[in-house]
């Protein structure tokens, strides 16, 4: 606060010094670029190659799309909101921004649950019929419908209001003041906000985390209890388990601070100074940490999944840099260097090797012996 005279309160237009603002901008820009590049590459790999359109990869594609929406609608608006004291946009942007943010985050979380459940079925019960692509598409539609349903109250309650007797001062010039507007959830009953926060916490964090943990613990037990033929298989088992632990821990740790702060602000009796500290410094970090989960998801699944790793390498080798800049050229860009391998050939390498290797896999199918490591990479 700059001043408080005759019940009129003045705030600086920018919340932070230039040094702090630069740190916030660089931090949010880093996860934004990482989120865009990683998730766009995941979408390209799945969409451009028919052999990659498996049930698991459809869920990963949906995860990439929802994470892209998180990057597009959550990261920039949250950064601006953390830098400027008031809400600088219209009431429509307030409603749409909050609604799309909530839907994209919810869809991302629900997709992580779907991936965990699908992997659980394939690895723990490998002899049961696998999910079909049709069922996977129905599950994806259900994910988005459920996400929209959870966020409808947000779209209704969000509104922009002018705060009486509060003004922003631009560059410490009291001749250049602006009214202070805020975008917030205005429920008819103030207690409804607290109830709604608990409902979202339970269904978008606590319950998904519980399901993901149970699924991955069961998968880990299954892999540890399987008979290992040699050290190579043992190393592969350890790599799979590491991925499961990383996914669960990153999801839990990245979202826990933000949900904790939301619960504190709704249920703890904080004074003005404590709220200023939370909104100015702690909330920006908590938002950054939560959104970073959408940026690292492609890295996790791409690094630990050999098919996606080959896809990343193929796109990196086969496509010139212009394709990364102009989005329309993603599907149309022509490879000028004939000596470089084409992405389809790279991605089909696994399938070709499986067909031409030997008859061991057919023997496995006939004897109904399914390796959980084969299932994981499918």
UniProtKB/TrEMBL annotation:
Q: Name one Pfam family in it.
A: 7tm_1
Topology relative to the membrane: Multi-pass membrane protein
Entry GO CC: plasma membrane
* Keyword tags: Cell membrane, Disulfide bond, G-protein coupled receptor, Glycoprotein, Membrane, Receptor, Transducer, Transmembrane, Transmembrane helix
Q: What is this protein called?
A: Neuropeptide FF receptor 1
The signal peptide annotation in the UniProt record is none
> Where found in the cell?
Cell membrane
Q: What does this protein do?
A: Receptor for NPAF (A-18-F-amide) and NPFF (F-8-F-amide) neuropeptides, also known as morphine-modulating peptides. Can also be activated by a variety of naturally occurring or synthetic FMRF-amide like ligands. This receptor mediates its action by association with G proteins that activate a phosphatidylinositol-calcium second messenger system.
């Amino acid at each position: 606060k700059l001043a408080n005279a005759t019940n009129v309160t003045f705030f600086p237009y920018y919340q932070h010094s230039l040094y702090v603002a630069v740190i916030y901008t660089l931090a949010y820009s880093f996860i934004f670029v990482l989120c865009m590049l990683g998730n766009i590459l995941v979408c390209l790999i799945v969409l451009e190659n028919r052999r990659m359109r498996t049930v698991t990869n459809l869920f990963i594609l949906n995860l990439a799309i929802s994470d892209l929406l998180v990057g597009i609608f959550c990261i920039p608006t949250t950064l601006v909101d953390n830098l400027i004291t008031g809400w600088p946009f219209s009431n429509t942007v307030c409603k749409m921004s909050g609604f799309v943010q909530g839907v994209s985050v919810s869809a991302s979380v629900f997709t992580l649950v779907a991936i965990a459940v699908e992997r659980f079925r394939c690895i723990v019960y490998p002899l049961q019929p696998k999910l079909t692509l049709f069922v996977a598409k129905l599950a994806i539609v259900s994910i988005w419908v459920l996400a929209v349903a959870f966020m409808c109250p947000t779209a209704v309650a969000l509104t922009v209001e002018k705060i009486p007797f509060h003004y922003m001062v631009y560059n410490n010039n009291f001749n250049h003041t602006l009214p202070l507007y805020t975008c917030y959830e205005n429920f008819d009953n103030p207690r409804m906000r607290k109830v709604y926060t608990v409902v979202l916490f339970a269904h978008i964090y606590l319950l998904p985390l519980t399901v993901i943990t149970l699924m991955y613990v069961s998968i880990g037990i299954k892999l540890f209890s399987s008979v290992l033929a040699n050290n190579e298989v043992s190393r592969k088992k350890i790599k799979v388990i590491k991925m499961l632990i990383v996914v669960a821990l990153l999801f839990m740790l990245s979202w826990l601070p933000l949900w904790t702060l939301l619960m504190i602000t709704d249920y703890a009796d904080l004074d003005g100074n404590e709220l200023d500290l939370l909104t100015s410094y702690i909330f920006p970090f908590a938002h950054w940490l939560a959104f970073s989960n959408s940026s690292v998801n492609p890295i996790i699944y791409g690094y630990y999944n050999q098919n996606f790793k080959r896809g990343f390498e193929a796109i990196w080798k086969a496509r010139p840099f212009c394709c990364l800049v102009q989005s329309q050229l993603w599907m149309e860009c022509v490879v000028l260097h004939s000596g470089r391998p084409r992405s389809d050939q790279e991605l089909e390498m696994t399938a070709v090797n499986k067909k031409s290797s030997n008859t061991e896999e057919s023997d496995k199918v006939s004897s109904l012996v399914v390796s959980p490591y084969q299932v994981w990479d499918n």
